[in-house]
Each structure stands twice: as C-alpha cells, then as structure tokens.
Amino acid sequence: MRRLLLALPFVLLPLAASAAEHSHDHDEEKHEHAEHGSLDAHEHGAAQLNVALEGTVLELQLQSPAMNLVGFEHAAKSDADKTKVAAVRSQLEQPLALFGLSTGDCSVSQQVLESPLFDEAADSHEHEHEMPHDGEHSDIHALYTLDCQKPEDLQQLDLRELFKRFPATAKIQVQVIGPNGQQGSELTPAQPTLKF
Known about the structure:
The protein has helices at 2-40, 66-69, 79-92, 95-98, 160-165; strands at residues 46-54, 57-65, 106-114, 139-148, 156-158, 171-178, 181-187, 193-195. The chain is an alpha+beta fold and 196 residues long. A six-stranded mixed β-sheet has the order 3-4-2-1-6-7. Strands 5-8 form a two-stranded antiparallel ribbon. It is globular, with a radius of gyration of 23 Å. 22% of the residues are buried.
C-alpha cells in the first residue's frame, strides 16, 4: 500500500502537467478576452477610482475616458482643443479639491497624469502613432500620492466637485482599501460621497 502511495504522484504527474497546460491555454484565452474586455470597459460617462489608505499615505488612481473630462478623444489640433486639454490638466492637478479632501491635513507628494492628449509632442510626426486617431478611444489616467498628517480625520471621499467640473461623468466605480477593510461603491452626482 505504501508503494502505491509513493507511486501515485508519478502517475498523476502527467495528468497534472496536462491539466496545467490546459489551464495555461485557458488562462491565455481569459487574458485575451480580458484585454478585449478592457476595451469594452471604455464606457463614456463612466470612470473608475481606486483609493488606498495605509498609515499616513493616501493613494488615488483615477481612470476615465477622455470624453468624460475633455469632451473629445481625438488629438488636440485646434487652439480651442489645446486650450480645453490644458484646462482639464490644470483641474486634474488639484486633487484635494476634486476628491473633497479638506480634512486629514493632506498634501500631494506625487502626481502623475497620463494621456495621449497630454503628450506635449503631439505636433511632432515622430509621436504621431501614439496619438488617438478618429474613431479610437483615449483614456486619461491620474495617480496621486498624498501624505496625510491626520489620516484618522479622513472620514469620507466627496466627489461632488469632480462631478461638477466634469459633468459628462455620470458614474464612478470606487474601490477603497482602508483601515476598515475593502469596500466598493458606485458614486453619482446624486450620491457623490463614500465613507472610509
């Protein structure tokens, strides 16, 4: 009986390898589907916000179709389009106001704004392939790291100002990881707050 138990792993090994190979193929299909699914996730009017509070560090990551924030997704060619992109970028550079973080004594230690629309070399032909073309989708990603001297005072996230400044944004899927665990919610102009 003991010999049979010792031999069992060797008998099951080819089956496990075959299952792993099948699982790997299935995972690749899932990954490919997820990549295509992420394209489908580009929904005008909808955005995503991930929030993490650990100790005194608060991180916010906003992802939105450019249409919600700028009003278009094509490369900014006209002066009016360039002015609009610059204005949106300027507003996104004010996370304390956008996310209603008046408490917690927070200051921005790092911020990164990414979008093909923010590419300063948009007029350069060498970067032309990076710019969205007619019919293509363009997103805006904003990542903020804040140092909060009084994180215990952070009671809620208030996106009222974000909805006000960017009225084409109808809903934001929010995921929060904080001292009270993980929670998720959909915020709207009618329901713009989420407690930490």
